[in-house]
Write a structure and sequence with these properties.
Length: 802
C-alpha cells in the first residue's frame, strides 16, 4: 500500500474555475536585459539575473546558472517549467520533477533534491503564465536558498504590477496529438490596473489548462486526462521612493482521472472464482478459487477482455490498460504572500522580506483491487491529507552596490503542520455477500464483520490517521564577497558563506485495521515520534575576471535535506526483508560539491558559452525504501554516492537574424557504498539519470508580408538510463531523440500568432518504464511505461492591449 508517504509523488492535476471575467493569465513579454559591450548594433543582449540576490550578469556569477526570458518562453511555447528542464545541460525529469547533476538517490522519480522559489517564496508551482523569467542554479544553494536545494534551485520571477500602465493581456491555444482522442487546451487572461497614480497597482492573472492523456482503461472506458488551473493576484503599494510592499494571493487547483502510466505486463493467466450456495457458510457461499490461462504473449487488456465502448474504438495497443477501478486525484493550494523591499534601510543596507502562509489539501483514490484482491473483488484506498505552512525570510544586504565588499545576512523560518487528519488514509472493500465471502476466503479475515466492530462500517477495513505532525526549520545565513581590483589584470572575487540550521519535528499517528493486527475488535495503535537536529553548511568560491567578457571560477558548496520521522511500522510489514532497515527517525543527508567553471562572451558578443566540471560527494543519502511484502514505504539514511560531470551551454549569433543554442552534458553518477535496502551495489549507476543529454536549437527571424516572423527548430537527445536498482530489463529506458518545429508571426504590435509542432517526425520512444515487482514470476504487478508524446500540433494566439 503506497500510503501517505507517497502522496507527494502523485501527479498534480486540477481544475479550477478561473474567477470573473478578467482573472486569466497571459504572456505579456519583456526581458530584463542590457546590450552587450560593443554589440548594441547587432541587438545582442547580455542577460542580467538576480540569482545571488543582486542584479548582475550571468558571467559575473561564480556558479552554473541558466536563465530563460519571457520572450523565449513565448517563442518556445513553454507553459510549464518542466518544458524548460528538457533543454538544460545536466538535467533529467523522468516523471516531471527536476533532477540535476545525477542526484536521484533511489528508486523514486521524485527525490526532492531541487527546490523551487516563486518570487522568493518556496513554492513548488511551475506554471509559466505571466512570468518574467526563470533561473536555474545548479549545485547546493544552502547559504542563499536553504534546504532541499542540494542539486539546485529553480527561481521563477513573475511579472509585477505596473504603476503607470493599464494592460489587458492573455493567450489561447489548442492542440492535438497523433493517435490520441481529444484535444489539449490552454486559456490565459490577465489585467494590470493602476489604482492610485504612482502609488498603488493591481495585477491579476489566471490560467486554465486541459491535458488529454493517451491511456484508455479498456474495462471502464475511461480515457485519462488532467485539468490544471490557477489564479494569481498581486497588489503593489509604493509606500515611498525606497519602499515597496506587495500583497499576493494565489489559488492553485489540480485534478486528474485515470492512470498516467501504461502497463505492458503479460500475465499469462488471471484468478477467478466459483460460488456454491451454502446457507451454513459465512455470507452464504462456499468459494473455489482457480486460474484461467491466456495467451502468454497477450497483454493484460487482451487477456482480461472488456465490454466498455472504448474497446471497439481504434485505441493503439500501447495505450490500452485494464483496471477494475480508475484512480483520481485532486488538490487545492491557497497561498498568501507578503514581499517588502526597502532600498535604503536606515542608510545602512537594503532590506527584503518574503513571507507566506499556505493551506494545502489533497484527496485521491488509489486502486488496490489487483494487488490486494487479484481483480476478483474491489478494494481501494481513499487519501485525505492537508497541512498549513508558514515561511519567513528576512535579509539585509550592503547598500553601496559599487563597493568592493558585498554582504548578505538573514534568517529563514519554515513550519509545516497538520492536526487531526484522522482520515488521512482509509481502505475499503466492495459491499455485498459475494464480495464479503471472497475477501474472507482470500485474505483469511472476516473484514466485513471486523469493519462493523472496529469502524461501524462493514466496507471499511483500514485507517491511518495523523493526530499531530509538524516540521520546523530555523536557519541563519551569511554570504560575504570581496572584489580585488587588479588593474589591467582585471579583478578577483573571493566569496564565502555559511548557513546554520536548526530542525525540530514531531509526529503522533494512529493505525487500525487489517494491516495492523489480526484481532477484532481492533484498538488503534498510536505511535509518537520526534527529534531535533542542527548543523552548519558552508560555501567558498574564487572568481577571476580578466575583463568583462571572461570569467573563471572555483566553487566549493555544501547542502542538506532535512530529516524527519517515519510512520508506525504495521504488523503486516514486520516480516518484510526491508523492515530491519527502518528507523523511527532519519537524519539530514549531506552534499559536498566541488566545481570549476568558465564563462565567456567572444566575437563581440556573438558567441557566449558557459562550461563547468564538478564532483559531488553524497553521504547519509535520504532514500525512499519500499517494502514489497506489504506495500508500505519508509525513508532511511542509506548508502553513499558520487556524481561527476561536465556541462556546456552556449548561444551563437550566426547572422543578425539567425541564433543557435547548444547545450550538452555528461553525467557519471554512481553508488559508492552498498545499499541492500534498495538493491544498490557499489559501482552501480544512479537511477533516473542519462549519461548524456543534448539540446540544439536554431532561431531564424525574417520578414513575411511586411510582418516580423520567426521560425525555430530544436533537437533534444536523452541517453539510456535505468529506473530501478536491482535492475530488470523492464527498468531500462533506451536512448531517444526528437525534433520540434515552431513559427511565430507578429500580426500587430498587440497580437502574435504561433504554430508549434512537437515530435515533428512522430518518432516512437519510451521516456519512462519500470517493473513494479522485482520478481519476474510475479504476474500481478504492473510493468509501468510512459511514451514520448506523438506528433502534436498546437496553435497559439497571444495578445496585449494597453
Amino acid at each position: 500500500m503506497d500510503a501517505f508517504w507517497h502522496l507527494s509523488s502523485r501527479k498534480s492535476l486540477v481544475s479550477l474555475a478561473v474567477v470573473a471575467s478578467l482573472s486569466g493569465t497571459v504572456p505579456a513579454f519583456a526581458q530584463d536585459t542590457a546590450p552587450a559591450d560593443g554589440a548594441e548594433e547587432q541587438g545582442i543582449e547580455k542577460v542580467t539575473v538576480t540569482s545571488r540576490r543582486k542584479t548582475e550578469t550571468l558571467l559575473e556569477i561564480p556558479m552554473a546558472v541558466s536563465s530563460v526570458s519571457a520572450m523565449e518562453i513565448a517563442d518556445r511555447n513553454y507553459t510549464q517549467a518542466t518544458d524548460i528542464y528538457r533543454t538544460l545541460a545536466g538535467a533529467a525529469m523522468p516523471r516531471g520533477q527536476l533532477i540535476l547533476r545525477g542526484l536521484s538517490g533511489g528508486n523514486t522519480t521524485v527525490p526532492e533534491t531541487t527546490a523551487t522559489f516563486v518570487d522568493d517564496v518556496p513554492f513548488t508551482f511551475t506554471n509559466l503564465s505571466d512570468v518574467e523569467r526563470v533561473e536555474v542554479l545548479r549545485g547546493p544553494q544552502g547559504t542563499l536558498y536553504g534546504s532541499n536545494a542540494i542539486g539546485g534551485t529553480v527561481r521563477i520571477i513573475t511579472k509585477k504590477p505596473r504603476l503607470d500602465e493599464f494592460e489587458l493581456f492573455g493567450s489561447v491555444q489548442a492542440g492535438g496529438e497523433t493517435d490520441v482522442d481529444g484535444y489539449d487546451s490552454n486559456v490565459s487572461l490577465g489585467i494590470n490596473v493602476p489604482l492610485v497614480e504612482n502609488k498603488l497597482a493591481l495585477r491579476v492573472n489566471g490560467n486554465m489548462e486541459h491535458d488529454q492523456l493517451p491511456f484508455v482503461n479498456m474495462n471502464t472506458g475511461l480515457q485519462s486526462d488532467i485539468d490544471r488551473a490557477f489564479l494569481r493576484s498581486q497588489l503593489l503599494w509604493q509606500a515611498t521612493d525606497d519602499i515597496d510592499v506587495t500583497f499576493g494571493y494565489s489559488r492553485v487547483e489540480y485534478r486528474d482521472k485515470g492512470e498516467d502510466l501504461g502497463d505492458r505486463s503479460k500475465p499469462g493467466y488471471y484468478w477467478d472464482y466459483g460460488l456454491n450456495a451454502n446457507p451454513d457458510a459465512p455470507y452464504g457461499y462456499d468459494v473455489d478459487f482457480f486460474t484461467v490461462d491466456c495467451d502468454p504473449t497477450a497483454e493484460r487488456p487482451a487477456c482480461k477482455g472488456g465490454s466498455a465502448p472504448k474497446v471497439i474504438s481504434d485505441v493503439p495497443e500501447k495505450y490500452r490498460i485494464w483496471e477494475r477501478l480508475d484512480p483520481w486525484y485532486k488538490s487545492t493550494n491557497n497561498l498568501f504572500t507578503l514581499n517588502i523591499n526597502d532600498e535604503n534601510f536606515f542608510d545602512f543596507a537594503t532590506l527584503t522580506y518574503a513571507g507566506s502562509f499556505r493551506s494545502y489539501k489533497t484527496q485521491s483514490l488509489d486502486n488496490w483491487t489487483r494487488l490486494d484482491g487479484d481483480d476478483m473483488f474491489l478494494t481501494w484506498i481513499v487519501n485525505d491529507y492537508f497541512y498549513d505552512e508558514i515561511t519567513h525570510e528576512l535579509r539585509l544586504q550592503n547598500l553601496d552596490v559599487n563597493s568592493p565588499l558585498s554582504w548578505t545576512v538573514g534568517m529563514f523560518y519554515d513550519k509545516l503542520e497538520t492536526n487531526n487528519a484522522l482520515d488521512n488514509q482509509n481502505q475499503y472493500h466492495e459491499a455485498g455477500d459475494i464480495a464479503s465471502a471472497l475477501a474472507l476466503n482470500w485474505w483469511g479475515i472476516d473484514v466485513t464483520q471486523a469493519g462493523m466492530d472496529t469502524f461501524g462500517n462493514p466496507q471499511k477495513n483500514w485507517n491511518y490517521g495523523i493526530i499531530k505532525d509538524y516540521q520546523r526549520e530555523f536557519a541563519l545565513f551569511a554570504d560575504v564577497a570581496y572584489t580585488f581590483d587588479l588593474g589591467d589584470a582585471g579583478e578577483l572575487e573571493v566569496n564565502g558563506g555559511i548557513r546554520r540550521f536548526d530542525l525540530k519535528d514531531e509526529s503522533i499517528e494512529s493505525t487500525s485495521g487489517i494491516w495492523t493486527t489480526y484481532y477484532t475488535p481492533w484498538d488503534p495503535d498510536i505511535v509518537s515520534l520526534g527529534g531535533e537536529e542542527d548543523g552548519n553548511r558552508y560555501k567558498f568560491s574564487v572568481s577571476y575576471r580578466p575583463n568583462s567578457d571572461l570569467s573563471v571560477y572555483a566553487l566549493y558548496s555544501e547542502g542538506y535535506r532535512p530529516g524527519g520521522n517515519n510512520g508506525p511500522l504495521e504488523a503486516s510489514c514486520q516480516d518484510d526483508p526491508n523492515a530491519p532497515n527502518r528507523p523511527d527517525r532519519y537524519t539530514s543527508d549531506a552534499i559536498e560539491n566541488y566545481e570549476l567553471g568558465i564563462k565567456a562572451s567572444t566575437f563581440d558578443g556573438k558567441f557566449n558559452f558557459a562550461a563547468a566540471v564538478y564532483q559531488i560527494d553524497w553521504t547519509d543519502i535520504r532514500t525512499d525504501i519500499y517494502m514489497p511484502t506489504c506495500g508500505f514505504s519508509f525513508t532511511a539514511n542509506a548508502g553513499e554516492a558520487e556524481s561527476k560531470g561536465i556541462e556546456f551551454e552556449s548561444t551563437a549569433y550566426l547572422t543578425d537574424d539567425l541564433k543557435a543554442t547548444f547545450n550538452t552534458s555528461y553525467t557519471k553518477s554512481e553508488v559508492t557504498k552498498d545499499n541492500d535496502a534498495i538493491g544498490a551495489k557499489a559501482g552501480d549507476d544512479m537511477t533516473m539519470v542519462p549519461d548524456w543529454n543534448a539540446y540544439l536549437a536554431l532561431d531564424q527571424g525574417f520578414d513575411l508580408f511586411g510582418k516580423q516572423a520567426y521560425v525555430r527548430a530544436d533537437f533534444t537527445y536523452y541517453g539510456e538510463y535505468k529506473t530501478h536498482f536491482n535492475v530488470r530489463d523492464e527498468d531500462i529506458v533506451p536512448s531517444y531523440s526528437y525534433v520540434n518545429l515552431s513559427g511565430r508571426l507578429e500580426v500587430s504590435d498587440d497580437v502574435k500568432l504561433s504554430v508549434h509542432i512537437n515530435n515533428l517526425f512522430d518518432k516512437e520512444a519510451e521516456k519512462y518504464r519500470r517493473a513494479r515487482s522485482r520478481s519476474e514470476s510475479n504476474t500481478t504487478a504492473q510493468q509501468y511505461i510512459d511514451y514520448l508524446e506523438g506528433r502534436s500540433l498546437t496553435v497559439r494566439l497571444d495578445y496585449t492591449f494597453y
